[in-house]
Design goal:
This protein has one helix and five strands. By secondary structure, it is mainly beta.
């Protein structure tokens, strides 16, 4: 799913995170990794501040508050 600047998105719940994390606390998705540091945002609604590609042409989202995913 591709989001655009200004979209509001809800970060997955803490229950989802706890059920899906590996032994390092990461959740590996198809094109993203949900890192343990992101768990503090679980269940919150954030606004997409910027959208750009990384060196592998994956979509990267920067959200308000400096969150990058």
């Amino acid at each position: 799913m591709n989001y655009k600047k200004g979209d509001k998105v809800r970060i997955k719940s803490l229950d989802w995170y706890n059920e899906n994390k590996n032994e390092d606390g990461d959740v590996e998705l198809l094109t993203h990794v949900f890192l343990p540091e992101m768990s503090e945002y679980c269940g919150t609604i954030v606004t997409i501040k910027d959208v750009f590609g990384d060196i592998d042409d994956n979509v990267v989202y920067q959200m308000e508050g400096g969150i990058v995913w």
